[in-house]
Amino acid sequence: MLNESNGSNESNESNDDLNESVDMSQVKLVSSVTQDICFQHYRLHFASKKKVGQNKRGHALRIFKIQEVLDAILKISLDVNGNQLTYKNFIYKRDERYSHALEEIKLLEENKYALIISTSDFQSENFFITDKENKNKQYIRFSTGQGAQRFCHILLEIKDDKVFADVSIETQKGVSNHVLQKMLATLIDIIEENDIEPSLFTEVYRPDGTGKTLLKIDVKVKISAISDATLLKRITQGDFISIEIRDKWLQHTSEEVDSLEEVESNIVLRPKGMLDTEISLGNLAQGLQKAAKKLTNGKSRKLDKEPTFHVKYLDGNHERISQIHLDSVTNAMSEMIVKKTWMNKFQRAPILDSTEIKDVSYIDETLLKHLVAKLKYESTNQT
Asked: Is the dihedral of CA 239, 240, 241, 247 positive or negative?
């Protein structure tokens, strides 16, 4: 899908009439901002699958290296109506409101890449910019096809086997592991449709024995969560604040007032104290599932969605919340809790150090290098 101007902000008025003019030569740009930044961690690989409609037995066996898929993405260069388009010009349109684009890929150091994925919100509200000192305000209003845009940092570290990569995704930027998966799948489709790297979509058909017959294959993006083993252990020891079960998909008439509808319910469970003997994750998972059934028993629902589980815990002086994932079939801890890394009070450099946007890099290399160092430290100091 080509990156086109589209959106749902309806406005025919000129921004010049709505926004105060600002003499940018008189503006003192922010040198840095201090933020608590969180990354969630996942494992990426590319799997092969035999294309349908081939009169060939067996399954696809090809094992892809992360680098060969990245190289194919970097090769995207298409002439469309006289415009030269690269991977940056193609979008994954999540819905009518949100669109995503892979803005930048950069090699930080050997086997470590920085990626930037943008999130464009074409139904974002108009907003004000205010001055902290004199309280002066500037009103920003979007025209048709315009919207707010955010940038998400992603660290991709290729593992020693070259087949898997650890992926760290910045949170609160509109990009999830599912968005990354769809974005990569969109680009792989473009590579195949335009014959940019044909060899990526075939493998030698082994049953033939000659080595000359090829099997046509699809490239599938696989992303799974990396579990937080440290937090898991704390939970089994009772070292957390609370676990909350939330059900936000009820559509149940209130028993007390029949003109009202119950739409949300929750249960908060707190540990009695630190445990001398650790509780097993299996027993904990089964207990949480039973509590969830008690919460929703006999109540009608508007969507086929299960209650969610959230653990609140202390991380130094900070209270954190992570979602617990349970397998609804086996009642076991499935992926359990996605591992998170926090960069507390990190001084983040602004994207722009001037008012010029052309050819700007959106990557904060300092942020990602600090993340690499912190992950290395945590890895070498695990108990």
From this structure: negative
89's CB contacts (< 8 A; 6+ apart) are 2, 3, 83, 101
d(CA 333, CA 283) in angstroms, rounded, equals: 10
pLDDT tens for the chain, 383 residues long, are 444 433 445 444 443 443 444 444 444 555 678 889 999 999 999 999 999 988 888 889 899 999 999 999 999 999 888 888 899 988 888 888 899 999 999 999 999 999 999 999 888 888 888 887 887 888 888 888 888 889 999 999 999 999 999 999 999 888 999 999 999 999 999 999 999 999 999 999 887 777 788 999 999 999 988 888 888 888 888 899 999 998 887 777 777 887 888 778 888 999 887 777 788 878 888 888 888 888 777 677 776 677 888 999 998 788 988 888 776 544 455 456 788 899 888 988 776 655 556 667 889 999 999 999 999 988 887 65
Per-residue tokens: 306: 């299960």
Look-up: residue for tokens 């890929």? 105
Is the pTM higher than 0.90? The answer reads no
Q: Nearest CA to 20 among 160, 130, 171, 145?
A: 130
Say how far apart CA 293 and CA 336 lie, in whole Å: 19
Q: How many whole angstroms separate alpha carbon 42 and alpha carbon 253?
A: 40
Q: With beta carbons less than 8 A apart as the criterion, state whether 129 and 30 touch.
A: no
Compute the distance between CA of residue 240 and CA of residue 126 in angstroms, rounded to an integer. Answer: 40
Distance CA 383, CA 232 (A): 14
CA distance 113 to 368: 10
CA distance 115 to 186: 16
Give the count of alpha carbons within 13 A of 102, CB side only: 24
Of 99, 151, 95, residue with least CA distance to 120:
99
Rounded to whole angstroms, how far apart are CA atoms 41 and 7?
Answer: 31
What is the Cα Rg of the chain in Å?
25
